[in-house]
Amino acid sequence: MKNILSILILSVIVIGCVSGTPDEHFELGVQAFQKSDTLAAIGEFQKAVRLKPDFAAAYFNLGICYSTPENREKAVKYFKEAIRYKPGYTDAIIALSQAYARTEKFDQAIETLKKGLDGNPNEVSFYSNMAYCFLNMPATDSAIVYYKKAYQLDSCSSDISYNLAYAMTNPKYSDESIRYLRRAILCDDQKMEAYYILGSRLAVKIGRTAKETSEAITSLERYLESGQGSMVQVDFANKKIKELKGK
Prior knowledge:
Elements lengths: L21 H13 L3 H14 L4 H10 L6 H14 L4 H13 L3 H14 L4 H13 L3 H14 L4 H10 L6 H14 L4 H12 L6 H17 L4 H15 L2
Helix pairs in contact: 1-2, 2-3, 3-4, 4-5, 5-6, 5-7, 6-7, 7-8, 8-9, 9-10, 10-11, 11-12, 11-13, 12-13
């Protein structure tokens, strides 16, 4: 079985199709979902679980199909079933936590992820998703702790480095956040939002060196060249570049 970690993508199972089997209905459900026929996909996955009541991947895919604002409670139910029949099912644990987070049930999301960590303490996505929940509660210091744990497991992830730095809004983290932003860019030089925040934080840094001033200008100019960002961000970047250049 090949499960893809995404709230928007179905688990896919490679099987030999035999008419009337749970696996056949599962495959038909995947095909229907890929054609954007969610209703047909739901019907096929429901047939699969009727024939095979412990079919964890089919429950997970039903959860994916129901992952819309109006059906989120159904999605939660199916993700729970997937985990019940397959404890430690990483995709389902993440999806369940995200379903809770989307309705601001952060305590339940965190509890779900902690249970996942009990079975798999080295799963990076559990730490990063938990950090996201704490960040939005808000409980920023706890978010930083969990982003750091994720970073320890995957220091090559630009997203983790960026999110860790993003959470460090308190001035006491200024130097540390700048280091993580540099790391994010090193891991992915197309991470334009990292250039923007790096340039912004360097621009207001107390005791900034000439080298850091040059780095701030370069970072903000790189961000502007990307054509990304809102009008507010673009105006701020242009303003800071002028100030840094002494114009």
